[in-house]
Amino acid sequence: MEVNSSDLDVGLGMAPDFIGNGRGMEFAQTVLKHATELARMQGLSHLRCAIHSWNKVSQLMAGRAGFDFSGSVINDQGEFVVMRKKIA
């Protein structure tokens, strides 16, 4: 994965009690709205996330939120799918 100075890295993490109740997209949209505002203030053009390769649910949710596959990376914490989203 190449480092891109036009990207703001974002991450989502939900407490286990909140997983599976159908509110994940609402949570993601709230976080992404704030991240988009921060990126704009910094003159950045994309949001980027890295998701464990085994976490297919989060990858699907990121895709529904407008992220596209950008590559993958393996490090000492595992294999990750990297996804990017152009901000308007």
Q: For the largest beta sheet, what order do the strands appear in spatially? A: 1-2-4-3
Helix/sheet category:
alpha+beta
Q: How far apart lie the N and C ends? A: 23 Å
Strand content: 25-35%
Quickly describe the structure:
With 88 residues, the protein is α+β, with helices and mostly antiparallel strands.
What does this structure look like?
- This protein is an alpha+beta fold.
- It has one domain (7-12, 20-86): Gcn5-related N-acetyltransferase (GNAT) (Aminopeptidase, 3-Layer(aba) Sandwich).
- Helix content is 31%, strand content 31%.
- The protein has 2 helices and 4 strands, in the order βαβαββ.
- The chain has a 4-stranded mixed β-sheet with strand order 1-2-4-3.
Please outline the helices and strands.
Elements: E1 7-9, H1 24-41, E2 46-52, H2 56-64, E3 68-75, E4 78-86
Parallel strand pairs: 1-2
Antiparallel strand pairs: 2-4, 3-4
Question: Which terms summarize this structure?
Answer:
4-stranded mixed β-sheet; alpha+beta; Aminopeptidase; 31% strand; 4 strands; 88 residues
